[in-house]
Design brief:
Strand content: 5-15%
Shape: rod-shaped
Helix content: 40-55%
Structural class: alpha+beta
Number of helices: 3
Number of strands: 4
Bound molecules: zinc ion
Largest sheet: 4 strands, antiparallel
């Protein structure tokens, strides 16, 4: 049989152990919650980045197609088409999205009437900027170089676009 003082020490010790166990359990739970939170945030960031990149890739494919098609038409002596030529397959595996693709772009069907020799003129561009998480937002711009008789497209940040759009004569009805 233990002495009363030993009993007292035992109670104190087991109380300390219980408190330490609770504190450890609480720390473990907090650590798990923090880990789940960080993983969730990372996954959301990766998903958003991948969605933005896919949209940019699709747009890049369509712009490449439209540029080549316009160049071919110019070479064949045809007049500028009424609509921006977009491929169902131009970087976009889903043909259903073709009508949506049309609304994605601003296109000046009368650009050839502005095509003074030796000057670059804006032909088409994304109506709205593509958003990117860690890089500046931007859009593709298709232009015609009158001196080289060449259609070309390039990516522009929104700052660049705001500066160059008036020079290129790209006047979007809803901006910039
Ligand atoms: Zn675009």
């Amino acid at each position: 049989m233990s002495e009363p003082s030993e009993l007292y020490t035992d109670v104190i010790t087991s109380d300390r152990v219980a408190r330490r166990t609770i504190a450890e359990r609480r720390r473990r739970v907090l650590r798990n919650v923090a880990t789940v939170f960080v993983i969730t945030v990372l996954m959301v960031v990766l998903l958003v980045m991948s969605r933005d990149q896919q949209a940019i890739n699709s747009c890049h494919g369509r712009m490449a197609f439209a540029t080549a098609a316009l160049q071919d038409m110019l070479g064949a002596g045809a007049v500028s088409p009424a609509e921006l030529p977009l491929s169902d397959r131009g970087g976009d595996p889903n043909p259903q999205s073709a009508p949506r693709a049309n609304t994605h772009y601003f296109y000046d069907a009368f650009h050839s009437s502005r095509g003074e020799v030796g000057r670059e003129i804006g032909v088409a561009c994304c109506r709205f900027a593509h958003s990117q998480l860690f890089r500046p937002n931007g859009r593709y711009v298709l232009s015609y170089d009158g001196a080289a008789r060449k259609y070309q497209y390039r990516w522009m940040s929104e700052v660049e676009f705001a500066r160059l759009a008036p020079e290129l004569g790209l006047r979007l009805p809803d901006g910039p």
